[in-house]
Design a protein that fits this description.
The chain has 297 residues and is of the alpha/beta class. The chain is 39% helix and 22% strand. The protein has twelve helices and eleven strands. β5, α7 and β6 form a beta-alpha-beta unit. It binds S-adenosylmethionine.
């Protein structure tokens, strides 16, 4: 008979610390360091260290941690105390109900970006076999969510970072859409051919000045290429909007995430070109977050 692995729940060397006590200990440390959400963070870190589910955390709080789980938990806690976001420590992030692998090479997808998926899915109701282009795909969260929700759609995902594309490809496989999604490396439209029903993007939009005042969690752990939008934060919008016309079908939709104060300027750029029905949409916090425009037919 083969021996069970070291971390087997019934044979592991135990640390003497229960899961509940471990969680309380981590909460205390994170709270003392002034972190924003110590309870949630501690719960997620202990879950990752033990491999416990949410249900296990409730039902098995008095189980003792293995020494291996304790070591992992100490490592995760130290990293969190040094400012690393929980998503980076866990290597994954929830987006539109699915878990996406992330690492230092990709932006951790933000909840407000789910708006782009909602808007694309509205269009896909009318055009179920649409072709979608995602510019600056990062982890692939937007386009993969769209394709996972719309079984007849196809997509192309572009990023300038080959490392980001490696992660996006893994996420596409995990979520079963790799056969409908093509990945291209290059700057915006440079590697792209063909026309699309929907072009969407969450481009980098932080001004050079704001880049100097970012929270440590963003500055240190999100890639600069995903954030820096140039002197006025609009470099990517100008590049994308000026070329999008040639890659959209007549009547096709352009969906762009925007910074809270960029709506009017991006609106004006679009209005000067052959787009119609240009509209700015607010997120759940009431901030302007997305701009939508249709290419005139
Ligand atoms: C704000 S992140 C968005 C990532 C992902 N779409 C999301 O919403 O979570 C912007 C992405 O654009 C990529 N990027 C920056 N400049 C680019 C360019 N010139 N051409 C293509 N991709 C670019 C970055 O590597 C990054 O992955």
């Amino acid at each position: 008979m083969t021996s069970p692995p070291d971390n087997d729940l019934f044979t592991a060397p135990y640390s003497g610390l229960s899961v509940n006590s471990a969680k309380r200990f981590v909460i205390g440390q994170l709270r003392e360091a002034g972190l924003d959400s110590p309870d949630l963070d501690a719960r997620l870190l202990v879950m990752a260290a033990t491999g416990f589910s949410h249900a296990d955390m409730i039902a098995r709080g008095t189980d003792l941690l293995s020494t291996e789980a304790l070591e992992l938990m100490s490592d995760y806690t130290e990293r969190r105390l040094a400012g690393e976001p929980v998503d980076n420590i866990l290597g994954s992030r929830e987006f539109y109900g699915r878990s996406f692998k992330i690492n230092k090479d990709v932006l951790s997808p933000r909840p407000e970006t789910e708006m782009l998926v909602d808007a694309a899915l509205e269009i896909l109701k009318e055009t179920p076999d649409a072709r979608i282009l995602d510019l600056g795909t990062g982890s692939g969260a937007i386009i993969i969510s769209c394709l996972a929700e719309a079984a007849h759609a196809e997509g192309v995902a572009v990023d300038m970072s080959p490392e980001a594309l490696t992660i996006a490809e893994q996420n596409a496989k995990t979520h079963g859409v790799a056969d409908r999604l093509t990945f291209l490396c290059g700057s915006w439209f440079e590697p792209v051919t063909g026309v699309f029903d929907i072009i969407l993007s969450n481009p980098p939009y932080i001004t050079d000045e704001a880049m100097t005042a970012l929270d440590i969690e963003v500055a240190k752990f999100d890639p600069e290429l995903a954030l820096r939008g140039g002197a006025d934060g609009l470099t990517a919008y100008r590049a994308i909007i000026s070329e999008a016309e040639a890659y959209l079908k007549p009547g096709g939709s352009l969906l762009l995430e925007i910074g809270y104060d960029q709506g009017q300027t991006v609106f004006n750029i679009l209005q000067a070109l052959p787009y119609e029905d240009v509209s700015i949409h607010r997120d759940l916090s009431g901030h302007e977050r997305m701009i939508k425009a249709l290419l005139k037919s």
